[in-house]
Please model this.
Amino acid sequence: MESDGYNLSYLDLLMNTLGCFIFLFAIIMLLVNPVRQHDGVEKKAEFLIITEWDNESLDDVDSYLQDPSGNLCNYNRREDGLMHLDRDDRGKVNDEVKMEGGEVITFQENTETVSIRAIMPGEYVFNVHMFSKRDLGVPLEVNIKMIKLNPKVTVVASKKVVLEKNGDEITVFRFTVSEDGNVHDISDLPKKFTQTHGYPLDDYSNEEDHDN
Model:
């Protein structure tokens, strides 16, 4: 009888443990590979373009990515087509966030990441732009990486560029994505997306927000 009770307790423990593992596995799969349907297109990250500069810099660098349909993802339109900009990083000036209780949290990292969430064949253009040069007289080195995530994580291209003054804009990558998701014909043939004073060519609605 004691043996039967022990076996039942052991089986209950085993089943509960197994249930926990199945639940955790399901949660992990949802977090690692989130998929949403939009007009019949699966949305998940296929490419990341990561722009980084000195964490101590006050300079405000912006990312611009145009897709084959002419959609333009930037600080003023952080989600456009199948592209998404994670954060408008304005240099060290917006590295501190004040919580409701008064606590200040510091996020000391100057990084912008643009994701392409599904394969759209055609030509893409990625630019970096110096919106506000606050560290005057000090050229800023900017590092950019383009990463392909599927079927395995691969650095497709990387480049360093230097921005020296307000309004500097550089085409970092001009590339073609084929229907199978591979990248071809990478170049830096220039294409401009900003006005002389630094705002996107086709939209001025967030000028004040970006400055402050």
Summary: The CA atoms of residues 15 and 46 lie 37 Å apart. The first helix runs from residue 2 to 32. The chain has two domains: 1-32, 44-211. The radius of gyration is 23 Å.
